[in-house]
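Supplementary notes for students who missed Thursday's class. We covered one full example, reproduced here. Read the sequence, then the structure, then the short commentary at the end.
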Amino acid sequence: MSRIIAGAAGGTPLSSVPGSLTRPTTDRVKEALFSRLDAFDVIAGARVLDLYAGSGSLGVESGSRGAGSVDLVESEAKASAVCQRNADLVNGVVGRKAVTVHRSKVEPFLDRAAESAAWDLVFLDPPYPLDEVALAAVLRKLAAHLAPSAVVVVERSSRSPEPDWPDELERFAEKKYGETRLWFAEPYVPDAIGSDDLPAAAES
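Structure (token representation):
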């Protein structure tokens, strides 16, 4: 059974999605992922987005660890209901509505997001049948809704190729855990000073 690993609700069991509707992140991978995110210091107070949320495990873990707000996006009815149960659990422990569930497909959700929306931490754990072209389209839409120092985490099969990052995103790390591979990306920031901008060397 999956559980919340740390934070205000640490140790609390989570509801799981019945059957094989989703591909949940194992507690081993989740623990390693959040250890890295803690090292990046991106969770406390962050605005978090969990796309293809499944049971909402990654999003509610963030809420337990002090995220400012968490949006769980899941289109399947049974999975969305599980997300809501897990969100209610964390919200009850932290004493506020830290986690909100949106029953929606990912691309329409991003299309509806306000232009001012700027998430600090985003999880994408798409189902394996989602092909690389569709994932690239989602990443392009997502890039318009990120804070300047955001971290994007994509979870895929270890046999899947690296995501096709849009120009606005740049991969900075990746890690394999058995059958799972995590890709880490951040908004691409061009060099402030290019070689063409440097002053010419003085003639001797």
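Commentary. The longest helix spans residues 77-94. The longest strand covers residues 146-157. If anything here is unclear, bring it to office hours.
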